[in-house]
Amino acid sequence: MNKPHFFLKSLLLILFLEFFLFSKFAFAYLDPGMITAFFQLLIAGLVGAAVTVKFWWLSFKNFFLKIFKMNKQKKHINDNSDNKINKN
Q: DSSP assignment, residue 22?
């Protein structure tokens, strides 16, 4: 086992435990403006994600519509050429 790498991982684990498990109370004050900013950020993120999913869905749908439309056109062209051959 690589000792410096192991030492670094152990140190990071100890620091993580120290900061998050054994922390004291902060007695911080969140004013109403901060709460409003948080909700704005949350709503903007949700709307942005919804618009992104919408654009991805439209491009996904258009991709498959183009494929099937090309297949129908090819089939239509082949059917028409078969009809011309049968008429002659």
A: S
